[in-house]
Design goal:
11 helices, about 220 residues
């Protein structure tokens, strides 16, 4: 899917200029959605010709994926550092929740962009997006949970792959609850307050209790 991306041409320009172009594209995609985003407008706002834009990115898909990759990389760098630490699984979970709160507030357009993928109606493209984005994150979680299982830090009857999936779902919804109107409203209905009125420390504490009970509770 991303094979037509003219990576060499884009990589030749300065990192500052790359960031400027991608930030403009991210704003367009996150505010209008993938379908309605216009690559001509992105080029105009970035101060480059449409011909040069297509030299950098052969298709709108390629540009969109580059924006997604840039945003996801921010979280994945943090996630990789946490998951590779020697901390026990619950401490890792706490650090990931804290990072999710912080980065979701700091990079709202990236989260809105990520939400666009979940609404993707083109099945083939949605599958490609999922594989592009989730493969690394899923590996981090599955490995960390499997290691915790092997060391006896969690209940012994859990399935690392399913637990990794459930954990990521919780964090995904948390991300959306900071930025996307539907999910912000859901949070407000359940908590009685707007997300901006919630203390991140309270979010961390309560979600960690929820995760701890899942990882450690056993009928035996």
């Amino acid at each position: 899917m991303a094979g037509t991306h003219h990576k060499e041409a884009f990589d030749k320009i300065s990192e500052t200029r790359q960031n400027e172009i991608l930030e403009i594209a991210i704003e367009e995609f996150s505010s209008k959605g993938y379908k309605n985003a216009n690559i001509n407008i992105i080029a105009k706002n970035a101060g480059i010709s449409i011909g040069l834009m297509y030299k950098y990115f052969a298709t709108k898909d390629d540009l969109f994926l580059e924006c997604i990759s840039r945003g996801i990389n921010i979280l994945q760098v943090t996630l990789e550092e946490i998951m590779k630490s020697r901390n026990k699984i619950l401490k890792k979970a706490e650090l990931v929740i804290r990072a999710t709160c912080k980065l979701s507030r700091q990079y709202k357009n990236y989260i809105k962009l990520y939400n666009e993928i979940t609404a993707e109606k083109d099945g083939e493209r949605a599958v490609a997006f999922a594989r592009e984005i989730e493969s690394q994150t899923s590996r981090f979680y599955i490995t960390a949970i499997a290691q915790a299982l092997a060391s006896g830090d969690v209940r012994q009857d859990l399935n690392p792959r399913l637990f990794a999936f459930f954990l990521d779902n919780l964090l995904l919804m948390l991300q959306f609850s900071f930025t996307c109107e539907y999910y912000k409203e859901r949070l407000s209905i359940y908590t009685g307050v707007d997300v901006d009125e919630l203390d991140d420390e309270e979010i961390v504490t309560q979600l960690l209790k929820f995760i701890e009970s899942a990882f450690t509770f056993s009928k035996e």
